[in-house]
Amino acid sequence: MAEGGRPPExxxxxxxxxxxxxxxxxxxxxxCLHSFCQECLGTYIAKEISEKRxxxxxxxxxxxxxxxxxxxxxxPKEKWAEQFPTNVVIQDLIQLKERSSELPYCKxxxxxxxxxxxxxxxxxxxxxxxxxxxxxxxxxxxxxxxDILDISEYDISKSKPEESAxxxxxxxxxxxxxxxxxxxxxxxxxxxxxxxxxxQEVVMTAKDYLERLQTGTKLRDTKETxxxxxxxxxxxxxxxDEQIQTLVQxxxxxxxxxTDLRQRIEKELDECQKAVTxxxxxxxxxxxxxxEVSLRQCNRLMxxxxxxxxxxVKAVEENNPMEAIMMYQRGQAEIExxxxxxxxxxxxxxxxxxxxxxxxxxxxxxxxxxxxVIEKQxxxxxxxxxxxxxxxxxxxxxxIREFNVSTPADKSTxxxxxxxxxxxxxxxxxxxxxxxxxxxTDEGQYLDQLTVPENPYDMCLVDNTTVAxxxxxxxxxxxxxxxxxxxxxxxxxxxxxxxxxxxxxxRFVVSDECGGVYSITQDGAxxxxxxxxxxxxxxxxxxxxxxxxVSTHNNTDGQVAVSRLSPDxxxxxxxxxxxxxxxxxxxxxxxxxxxxxxxxxxxxxQMSGDGIRVRELLTSTDxxxxxxxxxxxxxxxxxxxxxxxxxxxxxxxxxQLC
Length: 658
Fold this sequence. Notes:
CATH class of the largest domain: Mainly Beta
Shape: elongated
Radius of gyration: 53 Å
Number of strands: 36
Largest sheet: 4 strands, antiparallel
CATH topology of the largest domain: Neuraminidase
Helix content: 25-40%
CATH architecture of the largest domain: 6 Propeller
């Protein structure tokens, strides 16, 4: 070991493991002279080889990345670290450092009672400190051949290589030889056993190799390169420190931005919530007031009619002609008022539903909390239609306009087989000739179209914004009617070639090419309601009675033209083939009057719900030729135009019912 110097002045980083950054434990030196804890090095070797080279025979140094091979590659990789020599110099320095933390005192003097006599020497073999006197009197007499250190003035520059040389783990001999070819240090046994064929030119003592390095430029060049490398690492370390600082600042900025954004979102949410809530309250009040106004009107009229009826009965019983006549006149006035009130209420008679329309995820701005939507669905009017229906003779059809439903994308003449007249006054037509659904306003403005896979036939209204169409061989196509847009919502596949369609109680009712009328489920299963002898092109739904209206394409007098199918599958014939022949399109108005297209009789017939009163609403004199389909919306209806000329097939006509 070297003499002189003080342990506290040692470069302490030499005693740390570069892997775990703790004090070296069982330090093992690689050929590149970098030292590591035996356990850390073993773990590193096992991980490095298992991740990159399962059958590898070498590994890179964790510091300089120099490729290193163990002495015996056949041993398990977990034990390779044990094959490398222990750095005894480092071990001694660690021991000295540990002992230097406290002032050493002479052990023999302490035994004799002098506890604080400073020690000047340390015997490595005995691990005992001595003062100069006790060294001569006790140590040198019995241990004159062991290494003893002068710890009073430690100077590493005066170290003796022959005394500080580490010993080989395998042979317990001093490591003083170096093989330049393999760049390995070893004892004389290692040199003979592993490097015997390397030759004297490359095998020499470590001292001789050091002199060779000193006489050449390698040592100086290495020193300069190390210096530049250290400076490069210093620059990288500085840059990484700056990056870390930047990351820290970025993190703080982002956290602040997130906090600010949350505060803004919370503020916007509060504002949106107030706006949506205010809108809800306003719409609720409006609808509630409308209902209450109608309720008060009905209550007043009901009480008045009950009082009039009671007074009339009393006047008759008391034989009071004047009072009876007055009550009769008042009763007639009240009946007229009742009919007018029912007529006014019937047209807008709907169920009102206030809904919160939830926006899509990520929506910002005014609609981030959605909006309040008033949905109104037409519902059955709870009064016997016979009480208030107008005589059929008063119903006249006045043409408002006609317009062309062809579009530039059409490849053939239009063949309109189905029409739905929406409550918002838009019209959807099914063009069988071009396999398209088309959306127009009733002013004739084209809005959108949707292509279907096969020929579309009859159509029906599902709700205010949804229609359904019977597609030949492809089942029922449910279509959403948005803001000037048609979009496919769902498809119900069925094996039957359906042509007629309507909607009742959440399920579709369809007719096929063979005259069968079926109820169809969402999975396409069908339930036969009735089997007709002739084809049924179109179906309708009487919301008042819950019946399905069926138009049968007959041309023989006395055969059925229109019939009803009740929910319990009972058939009731409404009209025979006389006025109307080859019936196709069919619909019903709010008063319960039925409208039927006579395809072969070239007319549109209007009749009461029971079929007792029948009259021609439109005839060939009105330009009606082969009408295919009809749809009624309040006091208006739309009829497809056919076969006067080829171009007429591209037109539909709108009439006012008055």
